[in-house]
């Protein structure tokens, strides 16, 4: 049995980077939609739209991953 360690390392590296990136984008979405600000004000429309864009990006990445697994 021969293990391609370079390919395994690449898969591990890409998995770690994409996981951290996806969690970061989702966190930006949470921060954008949270109503608690230091000043006590609510989110502006632009911030909330950016947060929804973050959620859409997360959904697109998850959907693409499911597509890669199923196809």
From TrEMBL:
Highest taxon of the lineage: Bacteria
Transmembrane regions: 12-31, 52-70
Protein's UniProt keywords contain Transmembrane: yes
Assigned keywords, A-Z: Membrane, Transmembrane, Transmembrane helix
Transmembrane helix found in the keyword field: yes
Protein name per UniProt: Secreted protein
Organism lineage string: Bacteria, Bacillati, Actinomycetota, Actinomycetes, Kitasatosporales
């Amino acid at each position: 049995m021969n293990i391609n360690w370079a390919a395994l390392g690449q898969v591990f590296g890409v998995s770690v980077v994409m996981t951290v990136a996806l969690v970061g984008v989702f966190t930006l979405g949470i921060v954008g939609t949270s109503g608690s600000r230091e000043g006590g004000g609510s989110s502006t429309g632009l911030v909330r739209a950016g947060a929804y864009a973050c959620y859409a990006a997360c959904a697109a990445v998850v959907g693409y991953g499911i597509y890669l697994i199923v196809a």
